[in-house]
Batch of 2 targets.
Target 1
Amino acid sequence: MAFPKDFLWGGATAANQYEGGYLSGGKGLSTLDAITGGSKEHPRMISFKTKDGKTHQVTREQSLPAGAVGYVDPEQYYPSHVATDFYHHWQEDIALFAEMGFKCFRMSISWARICPKGDFAINEEGLAFYDRIFDELQKHGIEPVVTINHFDIPMHLADELDGWLDRQVVDYFVFFCETIFKRYKGKVRYWMTFNEINFLRSWTQIGIHDNSKPKRWQAMHHLFVASAKAVMKGHEIDPDNQIGMMVAYIPSYPMTADPKDVFAALQFNRDQESFIDVQVKGYYPAHRIKEFEREGIVIEKLEGDDELIAQGTVDYIGFSYYMSTASSADPDKVKYVGGNQMPAVKNPYLTESDWGWAVDPLGLRISLCKLYDRYNIPLFIVENGFGAQDVVEADGTINDDYRIQYFRDHIQAMKDAVELDGVDLMGYTPWGCIDLVSAGTGEMSKRYGFIYVDLDDEGQGTLARSRKQSFFWYQKVIESNGESLGE
Ligand code: P53
């Protein structure tokens, strides 16, 4: 048998894309509550107010003027407000996860639900909400895997302090972590600090107004320090806690054997790996330090920061894997993919999803090998999946065989990495195991789930849940511990 007996099969979600209840139970506003829906053609927009009271919108790539505050426009649709309403469907949803045989369930805790303003004031109702979730999961023998922070920050911290640019946010975040580590001790053992830390750069994600490179890196330094402190706190509160980091891992291949392309791929890959280096090895890699020197980027550090980063290293590497890319030294060949997150070249050997993400199962095995060879600590695939438009047939069935195909090939690759390459893999939680809002485009029509949710891109629908064909397929995979992947 390839997979260990206690392998963590499950699924993954995030509060801002799934939970809804954006003002219920005492929750404060999060930056993501002020970002509109979008589509392949139209980017999601941030709504904000300037000091003169005027309202404006910018894309996530753009900076906000100093002093601008997040604004929820009653005329606009914001997908996070209801999302797919886990807030009211948690019992039903957890029962469906249990029916699929989930051993674990990855979710995030909304910071603004626990600390509505992000400061030291706690919302007991928020804590009680997650108590109910963890108790329900336990009832079904499902282990929670908690992302402490997934792509947002309490809006108050963005408005008042310029988000993670302000060192005080480190203390607020560590207080939030301490609160949840203490409260959920014995209920939650698997944690990870920041979702896709290598992607954090905008107002919605980290609350900074000016997202120029020097500011982004100053905020990033604070994130690294906060993560290290959280890891140490978590271990102190419960030595059984397993606390990981989380990176978006997208291996890049050189477009040709031209050393220039090989070097372009190396630069792409080490940019992502540098985030793992800091959190696993405990120091900034030399190439990053040289880059800062060259570009005149000076990171303000407090005395002891380097030691904190060295001490607060993580127990495992959590990563998302959706696609690979190809790199070229020729700028004319480069396009942007993944919600404009990265420069890449179309790889002629691979097919792409409708959203331009290259489908590459062997790339998953390559990633597992690279990461395990390089870091030698346990790995956890905490996101993987195929975003596609699903069709509900007249009789209610949803034949998502394209999704089954994607998962079959990726699980086979993962199996090979464990069986043939000896990779130490803890678990596998496919993304959006139940349909939820797309982070990149804000659409509902880019679906990932085994479970369908009746909701459209304008927020219309009954929110009713139904099982797709992939639901029954994944159930068999889990039942056989990955031995049976079907035809
Ligand atoms: P969506 C881009 C590329 C790879 C992963 O993404 C990404 C993104 C962001 O768009 O994010 C992760 O919903 C993220 C999830 C997100 C998921 O991938 O754009 O951790 O929040 O939903 C899928 O299709």
Target 2
Amino acid sequence: MGFRQDFLWGGATAANQCEGAYNLDGRGLANVDVVPFGSRRFPVMLGDEKMLDFEDGLFYPAKQAIDFYHHYKEDIALFAAMGFKTYRMSIAWSRIYPLGDELEPNEAGLVFYENVFKELRSYGIEPLVTITHFDCPIHLTTKYGSWRSREMIGFYERLCRTLFTRYKDLVHYWLTFNEINMMLHLPFMGGGLLFETGENKKQVQYQALHHQLIASALATKIAHEINPENKVGCMLAAGCVYALTSKPEDVWEAHMKNRENYFFTDVQSRGYYPSYATKMFEREGIKLAMEPGDESLLAAHPVDFVSFSYYSSRCASAEGAEQTEGNVFASVKNPYLESSEWGWQIDALGLRTTLNQLYERYQKPLFIVENGLGASDTVESDGSINDDYRIDYLRQHIRQMKLAVDLDGVELLGYTTWAPIDLVSASTGEMKKRYGFIYVDQDNAGHGTLKRSKKKSFAWYKKVIASNGEDLD
Ligand code: BGP
């Protein structure tokens, strides 16, 4: 009983939210760099407002982020002190291929990640690497329209070959696209997509997604060819959808919402477009341009495991109902749940339900690669930070995850919290929305010393890992 002996405990971050150093050592500009802080952030993330470069008078948090680029040794030492077995991080595509369509990679970018992986390995920490966490070199957007172009598959393939070859002995766990469903909800942030006025957005989004799904299958194929030990996963922003009431129309609505989300993992894990998707495309007038060989590629190279982020469950109603904040997805407010300071509803049991839904659907190993509480922390006069609310959130979720393993038989490879160290919030660009066990001295405007210090949750998580999830007190 309990978690497997080799259970991968750790934490997760993304390049654009922690690295900074946006223009150092040959790195090119990316979509994630030009998303500003403040009221224009959302329109830019949605692709409704075009911003392809920095504009005077705006603050861009990703430029410096928490400067992991220069602090990685110190940060990894802290992860190791908590006993991390794994660390999930992502590659900034434009560090490796600054424009995205070059033939040769940027050596300085490759060296940076090689040093990070070696540092992790020196502590026995297994890297879990997201190939793209929202990144897209800006040149690929301006020249090709990003993922709307089929040519992106070739650029992504080149990136993957470079990474799999160079880090063959250093990295064995790969995720192809972070929260692939984000392309539907935040198309510019999620994949560098912009729209022309009057065009059918859904047509563009699903065509772009087809390219990503093909790129993901291709990456899985190449990863296995280069090193049969490689394990490749898909990554979904998950969270089961409940019906607001037992009214059949509400239940149906919840079913439809679940389906909209599971569409991605259905293709990546089962290897084909589900019939409900084909019907939906017909109904909505969406025509996917496919090439011969696409279907057989999807079928031959499904993922090895299914990973996902979980912050909350969602709720649906057939009629208009009060909405709640949540990981970008609009959701009906569930009257039975409490909310975080940022309005995200908290539902630990929903994690168990989500784990079961995914496992019953695919019978593949699962990996929870994001889960955590964004909250504002107070530094006391003695320097301590007593984040009991964070401990409480994580404890409840780990308990449910344990029940899913012990009582339901879900096969779970690991758990990485979002995020082990405070970093820039993806949705709001704030530093104040903190997730870490490690505090970073910086405010929303980018002021601060960047000094790292341990919160109360640091020692707690260390104990959780040391006891393999048995001691949650
Ligand atoms: C997920 C993203 C992460 C992360 C997290 C928390 O959607 O994969 O990048 O940021 O959500 O969200 P936020 O930072 O908006 O609080």
